[in-house]
Amino acid sequence: xxxxxxxxxxxxxxxxxDIPTYEYVDINTRPFHVxxxxxxxxxxxxxxxxxxxDAPQETEDxxxxxxxxxSAETIDELKVICSPDTLRxxxxxxxxxxxxxxxxxxxxTLRLRKRQQDYKETLLRDFTCRQHLYATELESLAMGKxxxxxxxxxxxxxxxxxxxxxxxxxxxxxxxxxxxxxxxxLGSQKLTDLRDAICCVSDLQVSxxxxxxxxxxxxxxxxxxxxxxxxYLEGTFYNDMRFPECRDLSQTxxxxxxxxxxxxxxxxxxxxxxxxxxxIKIGYPYLYCHQGDCEHVVIITDIRxxxxxxCLDHKLFxxxxxxxxxMTRKCAVCHLYISRWIxxxxxxxxxxxxxxxxxxxRMLHYDAQGNKLGDFLAFPFVDAGAFN
Amino acid sequence: MDYYxxxxxxxxxxxxxxxxxxESVRYEVFAAVWRKMDFPSIFYGKMAANEMRAFSxxxxxxxxPYFLPxxxxxxxxxxxxxxxxxxxxxxxxxxxxxxxxLKDWENINKFQxxxxxxxxxxxxxxxxxxxxxxxxxxxxxxxxxxxxxKRKTKRPTVCDEFWDRPMxxxxxxxxxxLEEIVNVQEHYExxxxxxxxxxxxxxxxxxxxxxxxxxxxxxxxxTYHNWLDEAGGKKKERGDADAGEGTSKQSEASxxxxxxxxxxxxxxxxxxxxxxxxxxxxxxxxxxxTGGGQATPRRNKSLKARITKKMTGKVKEExxxxxxxxxxxxxxxxxxxxxxxxxxxxxxx
Lengths: 388, 349
Description:
heterodimer, A: alpha+beta, Structural Genomics Hypothetical 15.5 Kd Protein In mrcA-pckA Intergenic Region, Chain A, about 20% helix, B: mainly alpha, two-stranded parallel ribbon, 13 helices, 2 strands, SNAPC1 (chain B), snRNA-activating protein complex subunit 1 (chain B), sequence-specific DNA binding (chain B)
């Protein structure tokens, strides 16, 4: 993890601990209480600053004139002087082509971009990685969305947390990229809301052999069997205890910590904790664990006040804004659909184990009446790209 | 996107430097500088839709620190104008917002008050305008944090010339404190007289503080101030010279590096592409050739070429032009197919 605490920035004496400051510059902050932080922002800002509605321009101008003690003419003059039109660098009605870097640019950034573009033109084929192409797709879909029912509007001054949930590192190819999904939650929401919104394939796994009764398989999803989950945030385990069959996943760790002279951890209930009650560090890796051992690193990357242009439908939160797309394994027969079954000891298959999509699996292994043909073992397979 | 940070920073500093040289905080002046540099073109050039947004976000984050201490008031005004300009000219839609951290809000408020007291109407008007346009995100931190500990990022540096140096000595020794010291000294002299045996005459043995303390302190501060001014001027000149030198050196170094890289890439381009299992043999041949006293390491002819030469005395052109040591090759077809696979070059940021 991080270097020893002595290397961090010194704590300013007498400073308010709920104002987030860097512990390590550009890496993570000191722990602070989310609710107190929200209160501090709201106390310092005028409600109009974060209101979702526009104040009429005239009243704004009048207010400004009063505050500054200047006449209305001065304000009008200021308006002209400071209008965004003064920033335009070309004659009106003659906008330049914005897709072309101007010839002989003076700005260093442009020189770099030009160099890159010239290089791109020399390429025989140029394709953007699809991962990048659709990176902001989800985010832009939700941008500026308003609820149909005004009751569902996010209240003004609500805070939005951005949370990165990293996929568990189970694939060799994930060694270099850090695939994750980004979720936005509201400060007033509970941790369990986030837990339910995180989609992970291990929740969908089905264990068991179903070659005799392939129709039964979907009824045994792990999510319904093993409902326990836990978040570890800043020294506290938040356990999901909503259902009677839930188990305290943190217990083994607590016991281990006790026997190894570690500082003790606290436990709390996930369903009773809202994000506002948390004490956290921004940018610091925490843990989400479910299905016993499916462990995700969770990083809270940002907390900010809801803005007019955000998605303001309460019902859409937790909102998925980014998702890493994973390559899928295709069916061995049609090479078209994603595999749903994996068979072993299969006399009909070219290799062992072999993947099949639902359709090809049924056609190859069962007759019209649904009777099993040949000898094989079939296991339901959930592809890592199931959520693409 | 990270490769844009450095040039972006330099561009912003360039703009602010020019603004600083005008010695005016008026918005018209800034707009003139802005137009002269054609700053909005920074957003031009083919960028994918999502790249545009990321770039806008990056440039706003880069410009944001200039709006904060430790920069001087002048630069901070420039920083505010810069944010206003960038916010209004960006091509992303809806516009990317400027993120304000809670820890900076106090400073920003103070800045706004200073501007108001100094009656810089344009400064406060633009700040008000940004607020009423909802151009700000009120956030916890100025950027998203991802715990990137392994990434070696450059420490945020403060541009020296923009820095508002605190005058600690001047703060400490003001006219009020001097008066205070005078009063204290008077008291002290009286107390000395009071404890002394002969009234009106202080004991000459008690002579810890010189009588002209205040004058000396004052003159010291004044000389220090003058020296600071002079040194600052000199330093600035020298700093400029240094900077010039530094850049030329840097360019020299980078030229050298580029030359090395090009040589390297050339040599790799001609690298012997032999089958793995055959590599050891190839090296043997090469070393024996050089051992044979050849001054310039020449390309080896292929076995076939050598055989044909021996047999017929003639060497076919195409075999000679083969780009690699192909001692093991007995066919030409393979050789031809080899030529096409090379020549892939990557973009260096």
